[in-house]
Each structure stands twice: as C-alpha cells, then as structure tokens.
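Researcher: I'd like a structural prediction for the single chain below. Treat it as a standalone chain; there are no partners to consider.
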Amino acid sequence: MRILWLPVLALAALTSACASVDKTEPVVTAAVASPAPAPVAGYDWHYTRDEGVARLAYGVEASDDLRLGLDCTAGSGKIDLTALGQTGDREIYLESGGETERFAAEGEPSQLHDGDLLTASAATSEPVMQRFRRIGWIAQWVDGEREVYAPHPGSEAGVERFFAMCG
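Model: Treating it as a single chain, here is the predicted structure.
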C-alpha cells in the first residue's frame, strides 16, 4: 500500500510547486521593431500622372535606369509591374515589411541591362502592395538577392498618391 501513495505524493508536490509560481505579472516579450531601410543615393520613387494614367517608378530620375515600375489606370485596382530579372526569369518576387508575393511574368531580353525585362500584373489589394502603400518601401528578390527600394524623405507621398488614384 505504501507504494501507491508515493505517486500521489509526487503529484501533489508537483502541483503545489506549479501553484506557487507568481502569476500576477505576465511574461512580456518585446517585439523588436526593425528600422525602415535607408534610401540609396541617386535612386528614388518618382510619381507621375497623365490623363487618368499613373506611374510610380523606382530608379534614377530622367534616365533609363529603372529598377521597378508600377503603372495603372485610374480606379482600375490593377497594377502593371515592370522589373529587371535574370535571363530566363519568369516571375517578379516582391517583399514589403514581411509580406511577400511572386507574380508570374513575361520576359524579353533587355536592350539596356543584362538579363530580361519582366512584366506582370497585380491587384492593388494584394497584401504586399497594401503593405508597400502603408510603409513606403518594397524589395525585389532576384536570384536570391534582395534589393530594397526605399524612398527619400518627401517622395513617400507619391506612393500614397499612386495607390489613391489606382483604387
């Protein structure tokens, strides 16, 4: 009979040890906020609008050096994407603040850069696009490398104007 009481006593001791833990203060783990990426000298977001069509382009102003282009017709809710990719790539892989999406793309050899010029379509409602709208930067992954397109102070307003027009 004494042997049966041993597991019961062990369980009682374990229960009382657990009950003695102070539950009045919750354990809080602080989320570490990652800072926004730094803008790159010479590159920025450029917003233009012309008769119901909007363009948001990341690159060097007034040049052919384009990294990512977004075009839309007012109120369409649809974005036409243009990006550079490796030869043979057939997707545009975007990330913004933890949201990611891969867009099936068509490609053709670029006349200005090594690799292919890729085109694809996306809805403005895509989570990666909505995150881009909120935080103002987006990144493209090409061949395992991440290239971040962050705005300089003041140009992030163009991102919001673009999405407001596109719908």
